[in-house]
Design goal:
This protein is mainly alpha-helical and 153 residues long. It has 3 domains: 53 residues, no CATH class; 55 residues; 44 residues, no CATH class. β3, α6 and β4 form a beta-alpha-beta unit. α2 packs antiparallel against α5, α7 packs antiparallel against α8 and α8 packs antiparallel against α9. It is globular and about 45 Å long. The two termini are 20 Å apart.
């Protein structure tokens, strides 16, 4: 979502959390590689718009993850966090993780659909929505991009 430029709007309108492992991957490692979105995420955290929560293992997550060995540490910690804080939804673009979420009936939304939702909620206007979609076009499936663009226009 950070690459879309709409993350600030998400953070201003919804409670947003990341796990400590995602923070380490996205911010600490990202800053060492000079990834622009690492600095944006860090700024949201400093402004209190995005909370970092230390992940505790969760039995339900452990049972689900037992059969999904190829899921990364950031995604694993996100699933634990989801159950620990009783979150409403997970935002992700990782296809393997999305498959896990789908097969286990766990609420999720992909970035392109979140941008459409922001448009429908009038958090983003048409121009902002199309611009956000264009910024992530190279990072998402073309079919998701086209479907989202159609819903905004």
């Amino acid at each position: 979502m950070t690459k879309s430029g709409a993350m600030i709007k998400v953070a201003n309108n919804f409670e947003c959390f990341i796990s400590d492992k995602v923070y380490n991957e996205a911010v600490i490692e990202g800053k060492s590689r000079l990834y622009e979105d690492a600095f944006q995420i860090e700024d949201l955290i400093k402004k209190g718009k995005l909370s970092v929560i230390k992940t505790k293992k969760n039995v339900k997550s452990e049972n689900i993850l037992r059969n999904w060995r190829h899921i990364g540490e950031g995604e694993r910690s996100t699933l634990h966090l989801f159950f620990n804080i009783r979150a409403n939804v997970i935002v992700s673009d990782d296809q393997a993780f999305l498959n896990l979420l789908y097969r286990n009936n766990i609420a999720f939304i992909i970035p392109s659909d979140l941008i459409v939702k922001l448009f429908k909620l009038k958090i983003l206007d048409k121009e902002e929505s199309l611009s956000a979609l264009k910024r992530i076009k190279d990072y998402i499936r073309e079919s998701n991009y086209l479907k989202a663009k159609e819903k905004v226009t």
